[in-house]
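Incident log, support desk, overnight shift.

02:14 A customer reports that sequence design results differ from what the structure should imply. Their input is reproduced verbatim below. On-call engineer (initials T.W.) acknowledged and began investigating.
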């Protein structure tokens, strides 16, 4: 069930909630519409979820999706963009994101298709090659609304991008911010996380859309810093991997995505 959060009449955040692939791991997709087109940020894990979004946007009377921007290459953020690309939208991402998509997506899609629980969702998923690849940044005027994509990594991944909507006072952070979800450290640059959060803060946006979890204010950045510091302390002081996992889960009892705690133990111990 697609849930929408209205940030302004032309800017919304969509999510399927939850914490499994069947709901795109709860990823947030930010949407902004101008006179000439609509831009989607991180449009879900599969074409089927992208179509739900497309229908919701049509119901709102928004113009067709002309652009998709990816904050990074993880499938829950990137695979659904193939659907919009096939419908004529231009997909933009950082060079390192495009490279990781090409390297990882074919194998990940094939793997999901072998899993009975996920085979149907990924049946028509396909790797795609973004048309607009940039190093520092990229921007577009949708007709009365400007969108700016800025490389802010490496942090969560090498190709991290934040998407700034100056007219809305909004920034979509991708997975540099998780709100109420455990952080995925799998491909993180541990020594880059703090600087990436500094860059995010420097935009001065009033509202921040995390990769997963509820939209918030600048306090989300400080909460993420505290999380990193606390998880690092717990993992490094634990007697075993198992004790480390238990300590992190216990410290954040309400957090979703417990499956990601393993990545903290693997990378931080
Ligand atoms: Zn991610």
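02:41 Re-run completed on a clean worker. Output:
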């Amino acid at each position: 069930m697609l849930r929408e959060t209205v940030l302004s009449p032309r800017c919304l955040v969509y999510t399927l909630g939850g914490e499994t692939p069947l709901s795109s791991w709860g990823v947030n997709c930010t949407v902004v519409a101008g006179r000439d087109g609509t831009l989607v940020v991180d449009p879900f894990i599969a074409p089927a979820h992208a179509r739900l979004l497309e229908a919701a946007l049509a119901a709102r009377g928004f113009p067709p999706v002309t652009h998709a921007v990816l904050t990074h290459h993880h499938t829950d953020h990137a695979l659904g963009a193939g659907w919009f690309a096939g419908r004529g939208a231009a997909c933009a991402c950082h060079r390192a994101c495009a490279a990781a998509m090409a390297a990882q997506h074919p194998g990940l899609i094939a793997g999901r298709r072998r899993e009975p629980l996920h085979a149907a969702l990924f049946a028509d998923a396909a790797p795609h090659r973004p048309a607009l690849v940039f190093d520092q940044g990229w921007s577009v005027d949708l007709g009365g609304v400007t969108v700016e994509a800025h490389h802010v990594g490496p942090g969560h991944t090498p190709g991290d991008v934040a998407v700034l909507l100056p007219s809305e006072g909004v920034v979509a952070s991708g997975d540099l911010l998780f709100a109420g979800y455990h952080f995925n450290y799998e491909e993180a640059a541990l020594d880059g996380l703090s600087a990436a959060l500094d860059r995010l803060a420097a935009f001065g946006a009033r509202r921040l859309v995390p990769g997963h979890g509820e939209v918030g204010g600048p306090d989300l950045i400080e909460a993420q810093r505290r999380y990193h510091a606390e998880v690092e302390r717990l993992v490094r002081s634990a007697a075993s991997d198992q004790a480390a996992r238990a300590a992190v889960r216990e410290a954040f009892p309400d957090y979703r995505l417990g499956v990601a705690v393993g990545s903290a133990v693997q990378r931080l111990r």
